[in-house]
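--- STAGE predict ---
source: upstream dedup step, 1 unique chain passed
mode: sequence only
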Amino acid sequence: MNTYILQDILLVLAVSTDALIAAFSFGSGKIRIPPLSALIISIICTAILTGSVLLSTVIGGFIPEKLCRAVGAAILTIMGTVSLFQNMLKSALRKRQGEGGLKFRFFNIDFVICVYLDETKADCDCSKNLSAKEAVTLALALSADSLASGFGAGLGSANIVRIAAASLAAGLGSIALGSFLGQKASCRKPELSWLSGAILILLGLFKYIGV
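--- STAGE serialize ---
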């Protein structure tokens, strides 16, 4: 397999992990994600990821190749490290939020952060069915990592069409699989943020050495 194809696939897998975990939480909480809502989530996440990659590709055209690789590798490594400790970060933010010290009112970003900390909060009407409007909020929360990760991956080389197609398919697949596993499982959601972090760090290494 071509190394660049492998890198694009790894990027998509890394950013799709959050969708898998979120869908698992919804499934275990008996909250249904209708096909339309799943499609909305996948489209928004794909648009944000590919938009970020496209922007960085354009900017990278004005920067020396070696510098592009170095900056891209640094961004991916930082994002991977953050993902490795994501559970600790979320715990700290939940504590701060519980103390009333985490408040934002800009474009209702406080609710997006609330969903980021607990995905099931997206079902704000407690209907046990994720509506199209609620799916938009969930997609924005899930795309937080994609912005920086996509930007780091795009600095150097990336196939926009391949990433978009793979991201859309992986998003839909992750939501379907996560919901199914969540409905069948009685345990709490799996802690897989470390996997996403490990993949991003690996991608950073690939980009740094110019593989």
